[in-house]
Amino acid sequence: MAKRKFPLRQTRNIGIMAHIDAGKTTTTERILYYTGRIHKIGETHEGASQMDWMEQEQERGITITSAATTAQWNDHRVNIIDTPGHVDFTVEVERSLRVLDGAVAVLDAQSGVEPQTETVWRQATTYGVPRVVFVNKMDKLGADFLHANETLHDRLQANAHPIQLPIGAEDNFTGIIDLVDMNAVMYSNDLGTETEIVEIPEDYRELAEEWHTKLVEAVAEMDEDLMMQYLEGEEISAEQLKDGIRKATLSVEFYPVLVGSAFKNKGVQLLLDAVVDYLPSPLDVRAIVGHEQNDPEAEIKVEAGDDQPFAALAFKVMTDPYVGRLTFFRSYSGTLESGSYILNATKDSRERVGRILQMHANSRQEISEVFSGDIAAAVGLKNTSTGDTLCDLDTPVILESMEFPEPVIQVAIEPKSKADQDKMGLALQKLAEEDPTFRAETDHETGEVIIAGMGELHLDIIVDRLKREFKVEANVGAPQVSYRETFTEKVESEGKFVRQSGGKGQYGHVWIEFEPNEEGAGFEFEDAIVGGVVPREYIPAVKSGLEASLENGVLAGYPLVDVKAKLYDGSYHDVDSNETAFKVAASMSLKNAAKKAGAVILEPLMAVEVTVPEDYMGDIMGHISARRGNIEGSTQRGNTTIVKGFIPLSEMFGYATALRSATQGRGTFTMQFDHYDQVPKSIAEEIIKKNGGKA
């Protein structure tokens, strides 16, 4: 039996998260360099980064999949997951945060908090993940550390406090002041390997004292003993301050802010120190709570420790060109040896673990055993998908799974040849296994294969992967929006299906009350039958008849959502009634209701943020209005204007090109799905007509 290299107390599972282009991947690269995992630094803008290992990632200079890697620093094991910053890949961030204990939020020193930072910050808050903030790119033109720190308060309402200050900025960024130990680290070369710890320079002393006092006060406020000591005028030592910061950070009520430039190799070792000093080990986070296999109400506490039964969560499935299907998992308790059998409690199936690999971006090291708190990848799991619980055969437990957003955009895809057609089905199935926000299905009416995802870039990458990894050539249609339908009025509606022409007939008869449900609440069915007017055995058939009809909507063939249905009356025939007849009757009741229930079409609205030089402000306001958008407000930052608003997804296709040409390439925008809203009547009529509507 293998022996554990690092005690659980000295293990850190962290994620690196940020807005696109804030320098996450470069920061991770530097961490790997300084912890001895790589010998040559790979630059993202040269397409040589270790963590961005898919071809598309290296070409586009963005991170798409969360690469997991393991490093060592100061007698600690640090497992790192590098997450994408592009909003189309939010699901990767969500998956990673679910299995991490702590995170590093990377900000751009010029821009501070950006839209995707808000999204990932919100996700981390949902999962209660302690964070430290790294204000990166201090060497960049316009870098402003105190402004970036301010955006943490303004845009995230975060109780964030600098524990460092930069010495200089842009080309003159030469060192970092440590506000805990009250000294300075000066860098004498660009590799960051030659550093000198000196006293705080004279011209920074006053600023450092001011921010040190602010830090002490903020930490003391969260610790009664320190507060008493501080009020009595006693000195708080650096060790006490460190302990106070750690406690407050672990409680997810305080966020230490660090500074540096990963590209110029400054501040990365200090960031690693902060990961070890302030972020939690698996023993510091609350025990994860699961439930019994057959009883979601019966809770089971899963304690971290090698002596406990094995329990882990599969958080990513991917196909590797060399070893086949890889399942990444986070072990919460117990140990697992390669070659052993485990239970997939979610699917109630036995799985055999062939080999266990510790991943380092895309190179791998085979290990014989995994311990509590580790992140590793298993080869040989056939039925496991994202979010499944893997556990000991004798102690089944289901850990709380992950919820993924519904796709908002779809395109039709058509193989170019018969050979491509045969390969495409299998390839799409594999891609859907890897990515829970990607769907592939065949439209039963047209026979077309429809793929759906989180945005244009998401689907571009999928089509690209089909070509590169699976050698499938395909033609892709224009993007289509995933519209929905819903009711706006409360109505009662009858559905009666009768076929009686001698011999065994069909008879189903229902009265159902339909009304709108809350947004996002989905379909709710209520059985209010009294006195057996519809026999018990036919009630499930009424529900499934409605569910099947909801899929195809009542206006233009889009799913009908957020509706309550109450079955309250009906009748049956002793001989002719059966499940099929009641399914059809339920479907007829829904169709009859459509005419009276004020059925409308809903469209996805995107929260859009456009950043442009202020000279173009007027043009951009016009752009947004012309695209049926609502402007929420705008903010000035230097000579740049940031305009926020909501625009229907259907109006956003091709916007990147339009914005570039309107601003001579100087404008950028981000968008992410926000909510569904009613389509204006004139546009709804066009959609219905185009789809050979039912209305």
From TrEMBL:
Ligand binding (GTP): 18-25, 82-86, 136-139
Highest taxon, organism lineage: Bacteria
Q: Where in the cell is it found?
A: Cytoplasm
SUPFAM superfamilies linked to this entry: EF-G C-terminal domain-like, P-loop containing nucleoside triphosphate hydrolases, Ribosomal protein S5 domain 2-like, Translation proteins
Instruction: Name one molecular function that GO assigns to this entry.
Output: GTPase activity
Question: InterPro entries annotated for this entry?
Answer: EF-G-like_DII, EFG_II, EFG_III, EFG_III/V, EFG_IV, EFG_V, EFG_V-like, G_TR_CS
- What are the record keywords, sorted? Cytoplasm, Elongation factor, GTP-binding, Nucleotide-binding, Protein biosynthesis
Mind telling me which PANTHER family this protein's record contains? Answer: RIBOSOME-RELEASING FACTOR 2, MITOCHONDRIAL, TRANSLATION ELONGATION FACTOR G-RELATED
The molecule here is called Elongation factor G
Q: Which organism is it from?
A: Alkalibacterium gilvum
